[in-house]
Design a protein that fits this description.
By secondary structure, this protein is α/β, with parallel strands linked by helices. The chain has helices at residues 14-22, 35-42, 53-62, 95-105, 124-135, 142-145, 165-171, 181-191, 204-235, 239-246, 270-276, 282-306, 332-342, 360-363, 373-379, 397-400, and strands at residues 4-8, 27-31, 66-69, 77-80, 113-116, 152-155, 174-178, 199-203, 313-317, 347-351, 368-370, 382-385, 404-407. The protein folds into 2 domains: 4-197, NAD(P)-binding Rossmann-like Domain (Rossmann fold, 3-Layer(aba) Sandwich), CATH 3.40.50.720; 259-407, Rossmann fold. Strands 3-2-1-4-5-6-7-8 form an 8-stranded mixed β-sheet, with helices on both faces. A 5-stranded parallel β-sheet has the order 11-10-9-12-13, sandwiched between helices. The longest helix is centred in the middle third of the chain and has 32 residues, at 204-235. It binds ligand SAJ.
Amino acid sequence: MFNTVSVVGLGYIGLPTAAALSTKGVDVVGVDVDSSTVDLINAGRAPFVEPDLAVAVSGAVAMGRLRATLHPEPAEAYIIAVPTPIGDGREPDLSYVRAAAEAVAGVLQPGTLVVLESTSPPGTTVQLSRWLAEHRSDLTFPHSAGNAADVRVAHCPERVLPGRIMIEMVTNDRLIGGVSEACGTRAKALYELFTQGQCHVTDATTAEMAKLSENAFRDVNIAFANELSVICDQLGIDTADVIALANRHPRVNILQPGPGVGGHCIAVDPWFIVSAAPEQAQLIRTARNVNDGKPAHVIAEVTRTSARFRDPVIACLGLTFKANVDDLRESPALQIVTELAAGDVGRLLVVEPHITELPGQLAGTGQAKLCDMESALHEADVIVLLVDHDAFRPVKRTTLRGKVVFDTRGLWH
Ligand code: SAJ
């Protein structure tokens, strides 16, 4: 039913989607503005680490089912998976979606489907239809022509968890939001090619809001755990004990506190809701602020304790935004270590098994060095566990004896 599909934006979502589609007998043309990404993919390599992705990409390219280009070519369907960041004022920045719309508009034909996968504020998919229409007065679009439109436009928000993308890409249910009913039906047919989960069809704006609600739900629940941890620190009570015991109730399931919430999704998407309904989004805004405030709490505690030592050595375990990934984007751990370095709090020994060199912002301070776990734990006066990597789990309790330990994740509890 679809012979050629184009995926616009070959990042954490677009490339795995392109690889998944190419296993279903579809010819996939990936489009990206970054020529080094395009070259790498055409050489059969993935530009970032995600379990099972490298083998999927090399297989798809070797079979001739996947290739990458800088400019869109005619296809039966386009999947747009570009970033939707927030600007300085925490307003959604839709410039990448608009640029993608402008890039594909010129190659649209009657019958083409355009799907927006990027997490987007309510109304963006309808706006995408308008942006496409601005460039093609010869075609009709669903925001004005409904089911009769030449071009079909839908939203199908990505829902995969980094670290499990290749599995969840296939097994998760999908939300399909059509700008018209016909758009929803067509988009469902595309996703049913490679999805084993159910495809739930609704309108575009409901699908946008449902996706944002998923991430806001998680953010609010993590904020609850983070606020509890700050309260327990203040009262001298062990947070991990409190949560473990409270979770023995059949209807209580408190998430894990941490050094803050990172990544490019949960720390960003709730702001789209706040920006769409600033008066009403009280709890969602507060949760964001609670989670954004957590790194400062960790920094203050570590700074206060380290001041008790002469020339303190501080082991910082983990830099990534969450466990078992190599992704440093919006990482609270990186923010904490960078600020400890800038504040000259002590000599910092950074243990991060998923990277090979310190990021520039940290290396530049001269206060931190990348270190293996054994020597960092041996030398340290203060140990700050920031990421719950599996590699940190088997630390012997005797190694920690006599040191001040901040286990922000409750990993060693
Ligand atoms: N975190 C905690 N405590 C917890 C769980 C997470 O502090 O109990 C922290 C993590 O360490 C990390 C941040 O929250 O810093 C976010 O991590 P995550 O694993 O909860 O989520 P993401 O950002 O990797 O992926 C989320 C997922 N959304 C939901 O689970 C509702 C994923 O399914 C989405 O596809 C993704 O956002 C996205 O792209 O929107």
